C-alpha cells in the first residue's frame, strides 16, 4: 500500500510535471473507482477543461486543487499510482504495455501527454469535490497531523502515546492520530527504535518515545528522498520503482538475519496485520501479552 513516502513522491512528481496542465478528457473501464460524482459520466463532464493549480498531500491522500474551486482527491488504497506518458488503446489494452501496468483510468492533458491511473487491486478512491466541502469528506476529515510537519513535535507524539493503552504499532498506523504511516514504515520505525511492536503505548518511557520519534522522522525522510518503497507494484510517474526497498531491515524479511544482531526476523499477526520484528532487539516484557492476544 502506498504510504506517506510513496504518496509524497507522487505529489512532488505531479507538482513538477503536471501542475498547470488542464484535463481535456478522461476514460475508464472501472467506473467504481470514482466515488463522487455518483456517475462516471458526471465526473467526466465535471473535470473537463479544469486546470491543476496546486498539488498537496494529506496523510495518504493526494489533493489536486483545480480551477473553478474544485478539488480532485485521490486515495491510492492498496495499489494505486499515476504514470505519465503516451498510449494507444488496442485490443482492449493500453499500448505500450509497461511492466506492472494495470491502467483503469486515463486522463488526456492539454500538452498532448496522458496521465494514467494504474491500480492492480482496483480498490483506490477518486473524487471531485467543491473546494469548500473537502474538509467534510470522509477521505480528509479524520486525518491526524503529518509526522514530517514542523507542528508534529516530540511533545505531540508523547501526548498521543500517553492517552491510549493500544499497542504502539497499532497507534502508529492509526490515521486519525498520525497521518501517513502504514505497515511498512511502522515495522521499520519500531525496529530502529528497538521497541517491541506489542508494547502498550502508555507504558512507553520518555526515552523510548524519543527513540520512536527520531526513527520516524529519519526513516520517513530517507524514504521520501529515495522515492518510496516498491515491495510490489508501486511506481513513480516514469514507471520506475522506489529505491528504499534495499534499506528495509525487517519488513517482509522473515527468516533473514537481523542487521543488528543476526537473529532471524520473525513474523506475527496483530489485529489482522503482519508484524515483522527481531525478538532479541525488540524484546517484550514479562507482563506483556503475546501477539495472538491483541
Could you please describe the fold and organization of this structure?
- With 294 residues, the chain is of the alpha+beta class.
- The chain folds into two domains: 4-136, Alpha-Beta Barrel (N-terminal domain of MutM-like DNA repair proteins), CATH 3.20.190.10; 154-293, Helicase, Ruva Protein, domain 3 (Orthogonal Bundle), CATH 1.10.8.
- The chain contains six helices and 13 strands.
- The protein has helices at 4-17, 40-47, 154-161, 168-172, 183-193, 206-225; strands spanning 23-28, 34-36, 52-58, 61-66, 70-75, 80-85, 88-90, 93-95, 103-109, 114-119, 125-130, 266-270, 273-277.
- A five-stranded mixed beta sheet has the order 2-11-5-4-3, covered by helices on one side. Strands 1-9-10-6 form a four-stranded antiparallel beta sheet, with helices on one face. Strands 7-8 form a two-stranded antiparallel sheet.
- Strand 7 and strand 8 (93-95) form a beta hairpin.
- Helix 3 packs across helix 6 and helix 5 packs across helix 6 (206-225).
- The radius of gyration is 20 Å and the shape is globular.
- The protein starts with a helix and ends in a 17-residue tail after the last strand.
- The mean pLDDT is 94.
Oligomer: single chain
The first-level CATH class of the largest domain is given as Mainly Alpha
Number of domains: 2
Helical segment tally?
Answer: 6
Q: Kindly state the mean pLDDT as a whole number?
A: 94
Overall morphology: globular
Sheet having the most strands = 5 strands, mixed
Structural class: alpha+beta
**How do the SSEs run, as a string of H and E?**
HEEHEEEEEEEEEHHHHEE
Main sheet: strand order:
2-11-5-4-3
Question: What's the architecture of the largest domain in CATH terms?
Answer: Orthogonal Bundle
Which percent band covers the strand fraction? 15-25%
Distance between the termini: 23 Å
Low-confidence stretches: none
CATH topology name of the largest domain, in short, is Helicase, Ruva Protein, domain 3
Percentage of helical residues? 10-25%
Let me know the number of strands: 13
Q: From the alpha-carbon coordinates, what is the Rg to the nearest angstrom?
A: 20 Å
Amino acid at each position: 500500500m502506498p504510504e506517506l513516502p510513496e504518496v509524497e513522491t507522487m505529489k512532488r512528481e505531479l507538482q513538477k510535471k503536471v501542475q498547470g496542465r488542464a484535463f481535456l478528457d478522461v476514460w475508464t473501464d472501472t467506473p467504481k473507482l470514482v466515488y463522487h460524482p455518483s456517475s462516471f459520466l458526471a465526473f467526466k463532464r465535471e473535470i473537463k477543461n479544469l486546470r491543476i493549480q496546486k498539488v498537496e498531500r494529506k496523510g495518504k491522500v493526494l489533493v489536486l486543487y483545480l480551477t473553478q474551486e474544485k478539488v480532485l482527491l485521490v486515495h491510492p488504497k492498496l495499489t494505486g499510482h499515476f504514470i505519465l506518458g503516451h498510449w494507444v488503446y488496442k485490443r482492449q489494452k493500453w499500448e505500450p504495455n509497461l511492466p506492472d501496468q494495470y491502467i483503469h483510468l486515463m486522463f488526456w492533458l492539454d500538452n498532448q501527454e496522458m496521465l494514467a491511473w494504474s491500480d492492480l487491486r482496483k480498490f483506490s478512491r477518486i473524487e471531485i469535490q467543491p473546494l469548500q466541502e473537502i474538509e467534510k469528506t470522509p477521505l480528509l476529515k479524520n486525518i491526524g497531523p503529518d509526522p514530517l510537519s514542523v507542528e508534529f513535535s516530540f511533545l505531540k507524539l508523547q501526548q498521543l502515546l500517553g492517552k491510549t493503552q493500544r499497542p504502539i504499532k497499532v497507534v502508529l498506523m492509526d490515521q486519525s492520530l498520525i497521518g501517513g504511516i502504514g505497515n511498512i514504515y511502522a515495522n521499520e520505525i519500531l525496529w530502529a527504535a528497538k521497541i517491541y511492536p506489542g508494547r502498550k503505548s502508555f507504558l512507553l518511557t520518555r526515552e523510548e518515545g524519543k527513540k520512536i520519534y527520531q526513527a520516524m522522522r529519519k526513516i520517513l525522510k530517507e524514504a521520501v528522498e529515495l522515492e518510496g518503497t516498491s515491495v510490489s507494484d508501486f511506481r513513480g510517474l516514469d514507471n520506475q520503482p522506489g529505491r528504499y526497498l534495499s534499506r528495509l531491515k525487517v519488513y517482509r524479511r522473515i527468516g533473514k538475519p537481523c542487521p543488528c544482531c543476526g537473529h532471524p526476523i520473525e513474523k506475527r499477526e496483530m489485529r489482522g496485520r503482519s508484524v515483522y520484528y527481531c525478538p532479541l532487539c525488540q524484546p517484550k516484557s514479562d507482563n506483556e501479552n503475546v501477539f495472538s492476544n491483541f
